[in-house]
C-alpha cells in the first residue's frame, strides 16, 4: 500500500526532503501522484463493512509510515519566557510615544554565574538595552489595540539582518501584551559625542582620525542595508550608536523598509520620513518615488555635524494641518539654500518633475540668503580653520581637500548623481588619510590612538515598572537611547520641530 509523506517537498521537486529519487523509484511511488488507497476515508464513512475511526486525527495516528516528528502528541512550543526571569534591570534610559528603553544585565542565578550571551562575532554581550513597546493606551486599565507598524517592521528587519555595524537584536519576548526587544547595549551615540565636544571649555573638535573611522563604519553598515534592499529613512547622530570599543552601530530601524519592487510608491505608506534637519531635497520637494540616496544625504549632514558640532541645515519644520496635508518645508529648503544655493534645472534635470517645484520660487521671498549662498567650500574652510585641529599621536591634524570633496558628493542635489554607499567607501577620503597622504583604511575602533574618555550614557535608577515588577525607573526626560536615539518604536521626536 502506497502512503503519503507529510514532509515538505524538496527544492528540486515534489519529493519529500531526505528521500532520494532512486529510493522512490524502487518503492514504485510516483513523485507527482498519490495512490487513492493512501487517502483516509471520509469521516463517518464505512469501507468494506468495517467501522472506521470517526476522526481524521485517529486515522492520521494509524498511518504506519508517518515520521514521528510530525505527530504533535506534545506541545511543540517552548515555555513562555518572562523578562524578569532572564534580565536584571539596571535602570531607565529614555521614553517615547510607544514605549520605553531600559538598561539590563543577565540575571545571576542563586547558585552560579549568569549565562553567557554571545554576539554573532563570538564576543560576550555584557549589557543589554531592552525596548518595551507598551499597549496603545495606558490608564487605569491597559487597552490593547495592536502593534504599531513601525514595531512590526523593526522586529521583522532586525531578526533578518546581521552586520558588525548594525545594532544586534538578541531576542524578542512577548509578555502581558507587551513586546520586549532585547538589543546589545551601546555606551554612547554620536549625538552624545557631539555634545561632549561642544560643551568642553575649549570646544575642541572631534579628531580627524575619529571622523574617518565613524564615517567609514557608518557607510559600511549602510552599504549592507542597501545591498539587502533596505532603506533606513531616519539616519541622524542620535540613531548612530558607539560602543566602548569604538564600534559604530546603526540603530532604530522603526522607519526602515524594503524597497525591492514596492507595490505602491514609498510615499503612500509613510508621507513624512527622516528627521527634518537630515531630510534630502527630493523629499522636501514632495517626491513620491525615492531611492537609498536619501540615506546618503543624511550621511552628508551627519558628517558636516561631526565637523562643525552643530547641524549644518538647522531649519524649522512646518506642521501638518488638520487635513493631514504634507506642507512644503520652505524654511528647511531655505537653510539648505543658504549654503548650497537653490537647485537649478541645469544641474538637476528631473527637478521640474518634483511636486513642489512650483513652491521653490517662494523660498527666496522668505530667505534672502539663498540669493547669495555661502558655498560649501567656504563653509568647510571656515569650520576647519576655526576648529584649531592639533595632531594627535602623529595622526593627521585636520580634514583636507578629500574631506571637502567627500562632503560635496554626499550633499549633491540630484539623487542620481549623489554618491552611493559603495562609491563612498572607495572615496579618496578613506583611501588616504584625509589630508592627501596614502594610508591604510580607517580603524574599526573610532577611539584608537585617542586619550579622550567620553562619559557613559546616563541611566536613571528611580522606580519604574517593566514586565509587571518595579525596577530601575524613569526620570521623565527624553534622552538619546542605547538602541536608537530619542525614538521609541519608530515614533520620532523631531529635533528640528
Automatic annotation (TrEMBL):
Compartment(s): Nucleus
GO-annotated molecular function: ATP binding; cyclin-dependent protein serine/threonine kinase activity; metal ion binding; RNA polymerase II CTD heptapeptide repeat kinase activity
Record's keyword annotation contains Calcium: no
Coiled coil: none
Source organism (scientific name): Meristemomyces frigidus
Biased composition (Low complexity): 17-45
SMART domains in the record: S_TKc (SM00220)
Protein's name in the database: Serine/threonine-protein kinase SSN3
Protein's gene: SSN3
EC numbers: 2.7.11.22, 2.7.11.23
Organismal lineage: Eukaryota, Fungi, Dikarya, Ascomycota, Pezizomycotina
Amino acid at each position: 500500500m502506497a502512503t503519503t509523506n507529510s514532509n515538505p517537498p524538496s527544492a528540486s521537486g515534489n519529493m519529500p526532503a531526505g528521500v532520494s529519487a532512486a529510493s522512490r523509484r524502487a518503492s514504485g511511488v510516483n513523485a507527482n501522484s498519490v495512490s487513492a488507497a493512501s487517502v483516509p476515508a471520509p469521516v463517518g464513512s464505512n469501507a468494506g463493512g468495517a467501522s472506521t475511526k470517526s476522526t481524521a486525527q485517529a486515522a492520521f495516528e494509524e498511518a504506519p509510515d508517518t515520521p514521528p516528528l510530525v505527530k504533535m502528541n506534545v506541545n511543540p512550543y517552548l515555555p513562555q519566557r518572562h523578562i524578569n526571569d532572564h534580565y536584571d534591570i539596571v535602570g531607565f534610559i529614555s521614553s517615547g510615544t510607544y514605549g520605553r528603553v531600559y538598561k539590563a544585565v543577565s540575571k545571576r542565578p542563586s547558585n552560579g554565574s549568569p549565562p553567557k550571551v554571545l554576539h554573532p562575532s563570538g564576543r560576550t554581550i555584557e549589557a543589554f538595552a531592552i525596548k518595551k513597546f507598551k499597549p496603545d493606551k495606558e490608564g487605569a486599565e491597559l487597552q490593547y489595540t495592536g502593534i504599531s507598524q513601525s514595531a512590526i517592521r523593526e522586529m521583522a528587519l532586525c531578526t533578518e539582518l546581521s552586520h558588525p555595524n548594525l545594532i544586534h537584536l538578541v531576542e524578542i519576548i512577548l509578555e502581558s501584551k507587551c513586546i520586549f526587544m532585547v538589543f546589545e547595549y551601546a555606551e554612547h551615540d554620536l549625538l552624545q559625542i557631539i555634545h561632549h565636544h561642544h560643551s568642553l571649555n575649549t570646544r575642541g573638535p572631534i579628531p580627524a582620525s575619529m571622523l574617518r573611522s565613524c564615517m567609514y563604519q557608518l557607510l559600511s553598515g549602510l552599504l549592507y542595508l542597501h545591498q539587502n534592499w533596505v532603506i533606513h529613512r531616519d539616519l541622524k547622530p542620535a540613531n548612530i550608536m558607539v560602543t566602548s570599543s569604538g564600534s559604530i552601530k546603526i540603530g532604530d530601524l522603526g522607519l526602515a523598509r524594503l524597497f525591492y519592487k514596492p507595490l505602491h510608491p514609498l510615499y503612500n505608506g509613510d508621507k513624512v520620513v527622516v528627521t527634518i534637519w537630515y531630510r534630502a531635497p527630493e523629499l522636501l520637494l514632495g517626491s513620491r518615488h525615492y531611492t537609498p540616496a536619501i540615506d546618503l544625504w543624511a550621511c552628508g549632514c551627519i558628517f558636516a555635524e561631526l565637523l562643525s558640532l552643530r547641524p549644518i541645515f538647522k531649519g524649522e519644520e512646518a506642521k501638518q494641518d488638520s487635513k493631514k496635508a504634507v506642507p512644503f518645508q520652505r524654511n528647511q529648503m531655505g537653510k539648505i539654500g543658504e549654503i548650497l544655493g537653490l537647485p537649478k534645472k541645469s544641474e538637476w534635470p528631473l527637478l521640474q518633475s518634483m511636486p513642489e517645484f512650483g513652491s521653490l520660487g517662494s523660498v527666496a521671498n522668505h530667505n534672502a540668503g539663498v540669493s547669495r549662498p555661502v558655498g560649501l567650500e567656504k563653509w568647510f574652510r571656515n569650520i576647519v580653520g576655526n576648529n584649531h585641529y592639533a595632531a594627535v599621536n602623529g595622526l593627521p591634524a585636520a580634514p583636507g581637500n578629500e574631506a571637502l570633496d567627500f562632503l560635496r558628493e554626499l550633499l549633491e542635489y540630484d539623487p542620481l548623481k549623489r554618491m552611493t554607499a559603495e562609491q563612498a567607501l572607495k572615496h579618496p577620503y578613506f583611501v588616504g588619510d584625509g589630508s592627501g597622504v596614502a594610508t591604510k583604511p580607517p580603524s574599526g575602533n573610532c577611539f584608537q590612538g585617542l586619550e579622550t574618555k567620553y562619559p557613559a550614557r546616563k541611566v536613571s535608577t528611580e522606580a519604574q515598572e517593566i514586565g509587571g515588577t518595579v525596577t530601575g525607573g524613569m526620570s521623565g526626560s527624553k534622552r538619546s537611547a542605547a538602541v536608537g536615539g530619542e525614538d521609541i518604536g519608530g515614533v520620532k521626536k523631531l529635533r528640528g520641530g
